[in-house]
Amino acid sequence: MLKIISLVFLSYLITNTAYAYIDPGTGTIILQAIVGAIAAGIVTIKLYWYKLKAFFTKKKDKNLDK
């Protein structure tokens, strides 16, 4: 794992400048992907909210109240 990380870091140091053109549509697609990922996360949390809530809270034992 350390070899891979050091190789990636080394490749960033060695690379030359890329004279590439990024059109305005690319920025829009990236923004759309970010907004879509956030919306999907919110919907997923909303769908499983009760299961998450039940998982993280303690349930009272009804037999102890008697």
What would you say this structure looks like, in words?
The protein contains three helices and no strands. 68% of the residues lie in helices and 0% in strands. With 66 residues, the chain is an all-alpha fold. The model has no long low-confidence stretch (mean pLDDT 84). The protein has a domain of 35 residues. The longest helix is centred in the middle third of the chain and has 24 residues. The termini are far apart.
Short description:
By secondary structure, this protein is mostly helical. The protein has 3 helices and no strands. The chain has a domain at about 25-55.
- List segments where confidence is low: pLDDT < 50 over at least 5 consecutive residues: none
Helicity range: 55-70%
The profile of the biggest β sheet is:
none
How many alpha or pi helices?
A: 3
How far the N terminus sits from the C terminus, by CA atoms, comes to 58 Å
Overall average residue pLDDT? 84
- What is the global morphology? elongated
Which class of secondary structure composition applies to the elements? mainly alpha
Strand content: under 5%
H and E order? HHH
> Radius of gyration in whole Å, from Cα?
24 Å
Number of strands: 0
Characteristics of this structure?
66 residues, mainly alpha, 3 helices, 68% helix, elongated
List the topology elements:
Elements: H1 2-14, H2 24-47, H3 49-56
